[in-house]
Amino acid sequence: MATYIVGDIQGCCDALQRLLEKIRFDSSRDELWCTGDLVNRGGQSLETLRLLESLGDRFHTVLGNHDIFLLREHWRLPDGGSANREIDAILRAPDREQLMNWLQGKPLAHWSESHRVLMVHAGVVPQWTVETTLSCAAEVERVLQSDKRGKFFSKMNKNWVRRWDDGLTGWRRRRLISNILTLLRFCDQNGKILASASGPPGSQPPAYKPWFKHKNRQTRDVTVVFGHWAALGLRVRKRTICLDSGCVWGGRLTALRLEDRRLFQVPGTYSRRRFA
């Protein structure tokens, strides 16, 4: 048995299929994990969801920001009509309900005790331990899997708090948790997020650092695997691994075999203006 972790797929189903062939993925014995952003921009989001859903309990993913956007559109548009044509194809598919029920049951953080690996889509603020990360993620997961999800989605674009505080409550707390786990790239040592920053390290203001660079980070004793940051690119270190190698931007789709950290890559099948 082998465990493979793949970076942001973003609807690049052809690349995913070629990658699975390259690693000789066997769903009867192997596991496939993904850092989230299964959909959007690659042109084959519906096909991607169908393929991954067919893997059953051999597949584990965390939700990325594009996945949450899809769930929001599913809630907002019961009859379809999304301005995003790729998303709208999912909303008009005959198996829409099956796929959306499957997707909204996915977590925002995944922990493997045996591997000592924490997987999130974007990152964690310095103050969070593994236990805090999982607990906070569960707060949002419970809402997404309940009849309160509509209220959560309706507040997604409201002004939101950017600094983590254990005393936060209600929707402000849930929205910040979601944004940390699915949008974080830079923050300060106190857990204040730099919003709307997508450039590489070094492009941020002086008070901020990449979230994984803070010396007070409480997850430094485990390996954190993430995606989301194409401008950072593939980055494999002892305790942090970024697997977003920009497949949808004309880069590559990457898988890491967790047992020996061997990397496997295939070229992307879709090219957009880099980091647009």
Task: Report Rg.
Answer: 18 Å
Largest sheet: 5 strands, mixed
Low-pLDDT windows of residues: none
Shape: globular
Major sheet: order of its strands? 3-2-1-11-12
Structure report:
There is one protein chain. By secondary structure, this protein is an alpha/beta fold. It has one domain (3-267): Metallo-dependent phosphatases (Purple Acid Phosphatase, chain A, domain 2). It has 8 helices and 12 strands. It has helices at residues 13-22, 45-53, 65-76, 85-91, 96-104, 130-144, 149-154, 170-183; strands at 3-6, 31-34, 59-61, 109-112, 117-120, 186-187, 209-210, 223-226, 235-236, 240-242, 252-257, 262-267. The strands form 3 sheets. A 5-stranded mixed β-sheet has the order 3-2-1-11-12, with helices on one face. Strand 11 and strand 12 form a beta hairpin. Helix 6 (130-144) packs across helix 8. The longest helix is centred in the middle third of the chain and has 15 residues, at 130-144. The model has no long low-confidence stretch (mean pLDDT 95).
